[in-house]
Specification:
Elements: E1 7-18, E2 21-27, E3 30-32, E4 36-40, H1 47-54, E5 62-67, E6 70-71, H2 77-83, E7 85-88, H3 100-112, H4 122-138, H5 154-166, E8 172-176, H6 184-197, E9 202-206, H7 210-216, E10 219-224, E11 227-232, H8 234-238, H9 241-255
Parallel strand pairs: 4-9, 4-10, 7-8, 8-9
Antiparallel strand pairs: 1-2, 1-3, 1-5, 5-6, 10-11
Helix pairs in contact: 3-4, 3-5, 5-6
Length: 256
């Protein structure tokens, strides 16, 4: 029997109902510490709703959410961020008219309790600028530090978004469609970045690209109509006939 101490995140019978529509139905997730766990499924399967429940954009109708064994079901979004859960979004959430460096300094200020006080003296922000440049160097964006973010290529914007989440030093990183809309070259860069990010933290991601899922994930949970359809490693779920019918069929339907 697995000890709960092995789980970074756990949900128990997690459910969400919207005006009689059951969007999430008794979902039980166990995300193990130090792993990359993928949440997949066709459109409308409930993946984004689960993410919204985990990050407190919605409150569950029923069930529990536990982080490192602590019940966070009724916690506020700011509370879970302080505890170490940080989410990146499906659409890039960086500030387009700040420089790349400034985008990283913003969360570093928040982490340091300084808020977004760009009027502070240069000395007061010097240490944060150093940290920001180290993070940018780590992901290969150091040469773009002074570039206004709106001018970045799409793949670099998504990489920057991941860097801004890392600036908050999360224990659990939730990635919502990290490679959506990318060409092959950018996908490869972001996959490598996620590999590096996951070296010393836990990652839960929603991802449509099955090639990315196969390359990154230790464990996969497949949702269909708000419920868990299957769970296991990539070989297990990709060879499951129900998954092929529900997920792969859904992919063909989307491209038709």
């Amino acid at each position: 029997m697995t000890e709960h101490g092995e789980y970074m995140l756990e949900t128990r019978n997690l459910s969400k109902e919207f005006r009689g529509f059951l969007a999430v139905d008794d979902v039980n997730l166990q995300v193990r510490k130090g792993e990359i766990h993928a949440l997949i499924g066709p459109n409308g399967a409930g993946k984004t709703t689960v993410f919204n429940l985990l990050t407190k954009f919605h409150m569950p109708s029923r069930g529990q959410i536990l982080f490192k064994g602590r019940d966070i079901t009724r916690a506020k979004p700011s509370d879970i961020a302080r505890q170490g859960i940080v989410r990146s979004f499906q659409i890039s959430a960086v500030f387009p008219h700040l420089t790349v460096l400034e985008n990283v300094v913003v969360p570093l200020q928040r982490k340091a309790g300084l808020t977004t006080q760009f009027w502070r003296s240069g000395k007061a922000l010097e240490a944060l600028h150093g940290q920001a440049r180290e993070l940018l160097d780590w992901v290969g964006l150091a040469d773009m530090a002074d570039t206004v973010t709106v001018e970045l290529p799409y793949g670099s914007k998504r990489a920057l978004e991941i860097v801004t989440t890392l600036a908050l030093d999360p224990e659990l990183l939730l990635l919502d469609e990290p490679t959506q809309g990318m060409g092959h070259e950018d996908v490869d860069k972001v996959v490598e970045l996620i590999h590096r990010v996951a070296a010393d933290r836990t990652v839960l991601m929603v991802e449509h690209n099955l090639s990315v899922v196969s390359r990154l994930s230790n464990r996969i949970t497949v949702l269909q109509r708000g419920s868990v359809l299957a769970e296991g490693d990539y070989d297990t779920v990709s060879n499951n006939p129900e998954v092929k019918a529900a997920y792969i069929g859904g992919q063909h339907a989307e491209s038709a």
